[in-house]
């Protein structure tokens, strides 16, 4: 259709084709490309969507007559909102800020032009205006949280900064019985008043970015690593050839982003993906939500004299569950198998008897919007890598791991990364989970920035020389940590079989930023976040 109108443009215009109709065709094609990207995670579709949307913007297809016709103005508003989403995912921050300014201006102009009165047959209804005002507020809040400081380093896997998959250390065959690759991911987040734009929350956005290849080093080629006054990256001419991914790299893992899913929708998506998962594939399930309970929780008041933290981390990688409070679950340390639960639990730890859940909707809706640990058990017939960001993450440790011990897991043991059960104070006075996103997710996707946030460093007051030095030391430390794990004879096969995947390996190594001692002293794991030193002292 697009080719036809290009070849016959003059005849079509003479027959009455309007410019805005050409723009609408291009906008629908752009939306089709974006939808195909969301289904396949193929970056070329996202680039094609950007090309069509950018052409609409530069050629001003919707400008003529937009303030005489509300329907036409509404089409332009929808176009700007869709283009904003594409630019966010493609990390075109300069264009994002340009579009936000245009959206603000257009909404204000529409309010003045299409006031409700007897003279306007089609008036801007008050509800329409409030909805577009909300769209503007959402994107402004999103950009305030996802600042240039949070994007100093690309979240996507960049061969400029990260090791090429071909040079990752080899895991010995006896330890890793098979080699798995991340093929699919299910990403879902819901918190009250969380930062989001449309149906893309800040947490799922960061995870989405972290599961993609950085195309041809375009982050540095187009941005130059500089920030503008408005927080956007420095300007330079757009070269779409920079968006072409390295053909030697495997394709991006497919990602299903679910916004406030019902339980039936969530299970249906999981079932479809598991059905299509190849034999060497692993499915990542990322869930970020507040916890809900429908029963009782037992609080353990042990003496706190359990296994020390140095032994904890070694045990974590000999087991298949990692928890940020310093405990792990294995057949030797399960509360159900231990005669003295306090011996394997720290003081204040809780065990939920399969009554806790993650709340993905209003609490008044009952179990329809709740995801329980037992809901995941049928899908453990395939390899799962589960990340839980919640104050109820302990429920998944107690439930899923105990299922594994009792033999209820159906063929595969799931790998678990669990956030702390409690929140930690963020150093900056204006920073909170509602304003910057979930802390555990930030540690997984941008560990150094997360560390800086805890120290109250948020970008404007950072010393770039010190930051670059810290980045260099962190990168070196993570590479050493990865080598130690790959060459260890005691790593549990659940971890060993995914260490060769660059995306999952980066998640595993990122949790090393939570260590309170160097890894050489015993691979110490700590979830206490007792960091009171300055950044410069810490890197040394």
From TrEMBL:
This is Protein SCAI. It comes from the Eukaryota. GO terms for molecular function: transcription corepressor activity. Residues 327-344 have a biased composition (Low complexity). GO terms for biological process: DNA-templated transcription. Residues 320-347 are annotated as: Disordered.
């Amino acid at each position: 259709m697009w080719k036809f109108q290009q070849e016959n443009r003059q005849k079509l215009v003479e027959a009455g084709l309007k410019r805005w109709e050409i723009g609408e065709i291009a906008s629908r094609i752009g939306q089709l490309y974006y939808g195909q990207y969301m289904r396949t995670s193929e970056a070329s579709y996202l680039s094609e969507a950007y090309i069509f949307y950018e052409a609409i913007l530069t050629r001003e297809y919707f400008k003529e007559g937009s303030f005489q016709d509300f329907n036409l103005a509404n089409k332009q508003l929808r176009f700007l909102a869709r283009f904003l989403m594409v630019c966010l995912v493609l990390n075109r921050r300069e264009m994002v800020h340009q579009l936000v300014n245009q959206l603000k201006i257009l909404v204000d102009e529409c309010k003045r032009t299409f006031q409700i009165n007897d003279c306007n047959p089609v008036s801007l209804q008050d509800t329409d205006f409030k909805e577009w005002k909300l769209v503007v507020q959402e994107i402004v809040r999103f950009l305030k949280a996802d600042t240039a400081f949070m994007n100093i380093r690309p979240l996507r896997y960049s061969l400029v900064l990260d090791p090429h998959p071909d040079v990752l250390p080899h895991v010995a065959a006896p330890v890793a019985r098979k080699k798995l690759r991340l093929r699919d991911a299910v990403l879902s987040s819901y918190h009250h008043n969380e930062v989001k734009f449309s149906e893309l929350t800040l947490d799922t956005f960061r995870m989405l970015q972290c599961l993609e290849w950085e195309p041809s080093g375009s982050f540095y080629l187009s941005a130059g690593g500089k920030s503008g006054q408005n927080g956007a990256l420095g300007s330079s001419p757009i070269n779409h050839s920079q968006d072409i991914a390295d053909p030697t790299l495997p394709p991006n893992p497919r990602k299903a982003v679910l916004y406030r899913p019902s339980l039936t929708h969530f299970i249906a998506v999981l079932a479809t993906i598991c059905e299509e998962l190849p034999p060497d594939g692993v499915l990542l399930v990322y869930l970020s939500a507040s916890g809900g309970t429908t029963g009782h929780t037992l609080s353990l008041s042990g003496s706190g004299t359990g296994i020390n933290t140095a032994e904890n981390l070694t045990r974590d990688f000999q087991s298949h569950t990692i928890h940020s409070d310093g405990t792990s679950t294995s057949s030797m340390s399960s509360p159900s198998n231990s005669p003295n639960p306090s011996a394997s639990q720290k003081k204040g730890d809780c065990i939920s008897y399969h009554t806790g859940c993650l709340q993905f909707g209003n609490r008044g809706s009952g179990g329809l919007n709740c995801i329980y640990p037992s809901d995941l058990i049928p899908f453990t017939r395939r390899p799962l890598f589960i990340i839980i960001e919640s104050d109820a993450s302990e429920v998944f440790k107690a439930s899923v791991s105990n299922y594994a011990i009792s033999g209820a897991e159906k063929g595969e043991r799931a790998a678990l990364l669990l956030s702390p059960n409690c929140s930690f104070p963020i150093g900056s006075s204006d920073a909170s989970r509602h304003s910057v996103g979930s802390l555990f997710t930030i540690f997984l996707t941008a560990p150094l920035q997360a560390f800086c946030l805890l120290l109250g460093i948020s970008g404007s007051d950072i010393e770039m020389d010190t930051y670059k030095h810290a980045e260099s030391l962190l990168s070196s430390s993570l590479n050493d940590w990865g080598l130690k794990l790959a060459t260890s004879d005691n790593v549990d096969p659940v971890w060993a079989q995914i260490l060769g995947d660059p995306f999952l390996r980066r998640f595993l190594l990122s949790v090393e930023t939570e260590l309170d001692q160097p890894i050489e002293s015993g691979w110490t794991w700590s979830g206490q976040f007792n960091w009171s030193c300055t950044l410069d002292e810490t890197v040394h």
